[in-house]
Amino acid sequence: MSKESEPLYISTTLTVIACFLMGFIDAYTFLQQDEVFVSAQTGNLISLSAKLFSGEWRETSSHIWSFVGFAIGAFVGEAVLDRYQKKGMKRYSYYLLIQTILLLALALFQQRIIGGVMLFSLGLLAGYELTIFRKFRGTAVNNGIMTGNTKNLMGHLYQLILKRDSAAKTHLTNLSAIILIFVLGAGVGTLTIQFYTVYHLWGAFLISLIAFTWSAIHPTLSAK
């Protein structure tokens, strides 16, 4: 692999892991936390509004926690990007360390954490992930929001079929891969919950830990 292609390879690998992780976690919050999505905030806000205007205002708190967490997570993500942008490729290790520590804390104390705090924390993680990891082989993607990915996929399909734009084929393939990875993550997450719910957050932590370990030992990422 050439030196020029290493940054693209690294960002793509980490975005794939983030996308799988977001599908994995969304399965958990939907099935175990009042059918809330922590990454798909459009659906979350629709559920919030529907419950609010139908008089079920007491049921809106879980959606509010998720939304506030996501917003703060995106803000924190921007701050982290700004803080570590001068660290070169090593910055990815810092990004992954932060999320790994958060997931470890959630896994350790999951049976003591109330639903609102859990949704806030996972929403924060989703906003953070969406801000940090967003490149797949040169294509800008949303690792947890498939609405935008699907819209962009269809746009590139149009460009490929009707405009004969050869570059659109690459983006079409990349976006299709991201959607499939997210679906796979949600599917594996569902199976994990059906097997034993407590294992789910430990599984999310393990995924993040593997990514962090890989970044720590990768020659390009670990170089000063």
From TrEMBL:
Keywords per UniProt: Membrane, Transmembrane, Transmembrane helix
One Pfam family here: DUF1275
Chain ranges passing through the membrane: 7-31, 62-80, 92-109, 115-133, 172-193, 199-217
Name this protein carries in UniProt: YoaK family protein
Domain of life: Bacteria
Matching InterPro entries: DUF1275 (IPR010699)
PANTHER family the record matches: SLR0142 PROTEIN, UPF0700 TRANSMEMBRANE PROTEIN YOAK
